[in-house]
Amino acid sequence: MLGQMQSQPLLISNLIVHAERHHGSTEIVSRRVEGDIHRSNWATVARRSRQVANALDALGLAFGDRVATLAWNGYRHLELYFGVSGTGRVLHTLNPRLHPEQLVWIANHAEDKALCFDMSFLPLVKAVWSKCSTVKHWIALCEADALPADHGIPGLVSYEAWIAGQKDSYVWPEFDENSASSMCYTSGTTGNPKAALYSHRSTLLHAYGAALPDALGCSARDAILPVVPMFHVNAWGLPYSGAAVGCKLVFPGPALDGKSVYELIEAEKVTMAAGVPTVWQMLLGHLQQNGLKFSTLKRTVIGGSACPPAMIKAFNDQYGVEVLHAWGMTEMSPLGTVCHLKNAQLDLSPAEQMAVRLKQGRAVFGVDMKIVDEAGQELPWDGKTYGDLLVRGPWIIASYFKGEGGDPLRYDEQGRGWFPTGDVAVIDADGFMQITDRSKDVIKSGGEWISSIDVENIAMAHPAVAMAACIGMKHPKWDERPIVVVVKKPGAEVTRAELLQFYEGKTAKWQIPDDVVFVEAIPLGATGKMQKMTLRQQLKDYVLPGL
Ligand code: ADP
């Protein structure tokens, strides 16, 4: 017997219709590439996204065609989020931090038909347009009079001119909720990049899940600042959850330095911000150097790579801001876990609570997870036993775009597919998951595993250390031994011996790195993560002390 409820497909257009009808006057504030602050609201975003929809129809793009963006976080990008997906075309957010050759490869692989870009990327587009063989329409996200006459890109139009002539009424089509809505390529540290192809259904379920109180906890009373880029896993889904709850959204544009982010938080009364640890490092540095405090910020979601304990402590103890440590992946839309304490843990001492907050947290409903050994046998949730982390759920990929890489899933005895995350983790009896490492970064020493994250976290707690990367070096007896590569804070001093001494008593003796290598900079990838492969390459002639 079937249920007798309305079966309305879960579509991205539902989000913008809801946001306009129920939260039309709630503001959308953007720092623009031009440098000024722009004010819009959900009603205006909805109206202009309908103009985008009409403009796309006028171009003759087919259902499912990819429309690419090369843009920072801002209101025009938001309009494209709804305008493109709402019509059944697929929004393809390109990461402008990638190498131009890689961008060309991705645009061709995705077979993008149109590409919308911020004016700050005009030099980049000028360099690559002729190699993007499928792109027929180039749209610059600016006013008509901001286009230079000598841009040289055939058929280039300004976004404002492109939508200006279009009607602002549009009937969003209804179609299968499993239709593709947007796509994002993983940074592809090995081999060619592969794309996660999200659906309307997966995006809406993720929007509900992410907004839950024990997930990102979004509400109409919030002003949310996604520092995480809209070109990286849809800014962790915040534009969608934001529309669902009708909160104010504040976009930082290209200005991600501590001063600019701080000014925006204060001026726009931001209550929640989300981003990767490197961004918060810059923000904390700015606060500390200038003796500043936050007046409205209540919580920050930090994920993308492990959040150093020193950062959680600084936010909590010095600024009264709760850090929500979160974990996810491009392949997971991206949310997997968020660290919120359970009721029973509220009575723990501050130190005990901090130990919980360092973990990546509990699964958001919609995500199931387990840890397994090499044979695929499930391992206990005892907070000690570590294994490969596998996940499943309706916003986790089943396969990559165009079937690249074959079937990525591993099947259990019931034939259910689990996605292997490539992370190694422990899970405790309360369901709190903690990543010990990426499987390719874990250091195998004398048959035991050393978590590179643990080694990095201790170094990061030293006041002179700005950034630390732990990598394994070949050792004839132990197989591998850890070393820690360190960038010092400007003007700060620490010696190799002092830093090694700093590890004493903080970890088991055999987990203390064998050496400290000071460098000017650690290579970062396009999503702000440390590139350990490149670092290993740079240190290929390095020899461990005593060998
Ligand atoms: P890419 O590296 O391709 O950009 P993602 O952005 O999808 O991929 O990153 C996913 C990976 O980032 C996870 O598998 C995990 O290794 C790491 N990661 C994400 N959040 C955290 C976190 N809070 N702590 C530790 N690692 C994290």
Automatic annotation (TrEMBL):
Keyword Lipid metabolism: yes
CDD domains documented for this protein: ttLC_FACS_AlkK_like
Any Pfam family the entry gives: AMP-binding
Superkingdom as given in the UniProt entry: Bacteria
Keyword Transport in annotation: no
Record family assignment: Belongs to the ATP-dependent AMP-binding enzyme family.
The protein's name in its UniProt record: Fatty-acid--CoA ligase
Species of the source: Hydrogenophaga crocea
